[in-house]
Protein 1
Amino acid sequence: MIPGFIILIAAAYLLGSIPFGLLIARAHGIDLRKIGSGNIGATNVSRALGKKWAYICFALDALKGLVPMLLAVGFGLVEKNASVGQLGLWLAVGCAAILGHVFPIYLGFRGGKGVATSMGVVMGLWPYYTLSGLIVLGVWIIAMWLWRYVSLASLLAAVLFPVILTVLICLISEWRFENLWPLYIAATGIPLLVIARHAENIKRLLEGSEPKVGGK
């Protein structure tokens, strides 16, 4: 089982490192790193190519996190009632995909912010992260509707995710902290990475210069 996880962790990192946003823009003759914020994620793709290609980029980046998580289950590496050790290794697969996106080997370890890939990981870790993630996704949609800042909605979702997971662990009797503590550690660490990657966005939000969706 452990050799299988090691192979999948390595594969998840390499998959996560594929810069789909950069490749989409390059196919249209555009260097995404010279447009807008210079980020290789879906938000910057929207600035360069419009919403359609941004949605495609977001979906592909999310799949980088979702597919390795599902493969771990499909290959029988994760059982229905996974042990603490299995949960930890399953999380390592997801974290490898996120780190691949944020620090891609193909781009000199200078990548995106990890929001879409993190969402893919969250949706793939059923039921613990998936249920929490669906609630947080609803918050993200509401925040986007109210303020039209992708960065603000993403930051709010990152902060709320470990909070929602904690509430669900307290409310659902079958979920016991002593069995799920690796999930809690990752649920705190991943959002901290996302927040750190949004340092420039936080600065612009405070200055009032962060661009809104649909704005100039």
Protein 2
Amino acid sequence: MTQDHLHRNTPESQGIQSEAIRDFVLAADQAIQSMHSFMLLRHGVVVAEGWWHPYRPESPHMLFSLSKSFTSTAIGLAVNEGLLTLDDPVLKFFPKDAPRKTSPNLAAMRVRHLLSMSTGHHEDTTEHIMRARNPFKAFLGLAVEHEPGTHFVYNSGASYMLAAIVQKLTGQTLAGYLSPRLFEPLGIEGAVWDSHPNGVNFGGWGLNIKTEDIARFGQLYLQKGQWNRRQLIPVSWVEAATSKQVSNGPDKNLDWEQGYGYQFWRCQPASIYRGDGAFGQFCVVMPEQDAVLAITAGSPEMQPILNLVWEKLLPGIQAAALPENASAVESLVETLKHLHLSPTQGKIASPESSRISGQVYTFEPNDETLHSLSLDFSTNTLTYRLLGGGARRGKHRLGFGIGAWVEGTSALRDFIPRKVAASGAWISDNTFRLTLCRYETPFVATFDFRFEGSQVFFDARVNVDFGPTEAPQLIGTSA
């Protein structure tokens, strides 16, 4: 099968009920906050795909820990090339960073333990090592409380060390190493992998690719590493990486306690496995069904997404092709065509608009480095000035729609300027709400500007985050 271009066909032609897909989409649209995209393949054919506008197929998306499955693949390729073995000691690759006294457990830590999250650490090492000037030395200097291989703890620091091992062995970053071996053969273009200041791709997170790229990666694993009649990944690696290598909990109703492979998770349906990332980034591979499901989202809870897959979608996958159902297909197509993230809800105007429009509000020094802002309701534009350094510094303008999304770039309440779709509305006579959909990420920011006399009270929150989702209020004053 040639897969430079993924073929499309109706669900029924590949043995899936269109009604089941529609039920899944409608349930996800109602129950999950918020879905961004999905793509479903059966027998290597795309049978359904959808993006919740302003998310779109041509844009990459942050994968977070779904990146780990790509890191695993790089290790598998390096093993196949004879660059290392899974039983190599971790210390072998970092001789200059080893502690003066090596504990027996640290000495016993192998590459396979990094892969299976069974390094022996009692807690995740990530935060500690990312704060250190030398993350390798920090990782190796931590206490290894358990015998490696006997204790599971989800540990993105271990994935980072895998990325470092690949770079030490090849002289290339993970992205550089995978480009000719994986990305290019799969037709994945423009992959970006964020890096530590020392130049090592994070490994456990940081990869940005499109929804279809996720689906292609899943299809490659479904096909036991073969693509266009080329064996890109050894069959033995696919089987080992996606098999249960370590137990990680007793709860049969939780998809994060069904066992862990080499940077892949096992699922409740026994034959299914997945890669996943924070807030709902999924690559679900279903070998018995010969199907792959790619999902991106911005949800604080991930289990409900998988529950809908098992409850709504999985039962609709049949053994053989089904009779064509034109009305069901048409209904599904119409549903997919109208998926969207709702723009800001509220009034289009306020009695306060003319008084506020064009006023410049200045802020005391603050952690957000926000110096001033102004809203112009004649042009629907936010103008703001940021202090500090880098690309954020200076004067920025952002257009927004009323009852619609308008494309732009924003660095407000963000680390770097990002592509956004912006929408605003008045939620009361004196409060204007601006919503920024950072559509290449899981994050949607909501800004409330409450105007009282000569002051503006600026409140910001985000739909999901690893810490607090609400920021401290800032107060600005006009001249």
Protein 3
Amino acid sequence: MVLQVLNGFFILLLILIGRIDYKYRKIPNGLIILLWGIGILAGIVSREPDWILRLAGMFAVSLPLFLIVLAFPGSIGGGDIKLMAAGGMFLGMKLIFLSFILALAGCGMWCAAGLASGRLRRKEKFALGPFLCAGMAACVFWGEKLWKWFAALL
């Protein structure tokens, strides 16, 4: 029961973060801290994923994103990196990785449609946070099923 409440708070924060990032292209640090705190509470309440996978989840996506920013400054926002680290604490390594793949797929389809329709121009900046939030939310609801399906494709 407590885990379901934490899942609900996690989803509500993702909705809020996604809307704020879409509108202002900024993710408030206070919301990231709340998200991270929910991940810690979930780790106390549930043994799945274990603490090692939760800690690994903090770095599984955020560290490569940070390295991309070092190589290509301005390519990804710092809020997106912190968002994935906080999400990794909640979801663990496997599901944060899957959520990132889902986010990139959704983002790619949105960009392709935007370019084809003329609503987007090449090299135009846009908020990545809503896609990251949608990928994490999908993993809260269907993560294990999606992971099995995705692993079967490989």
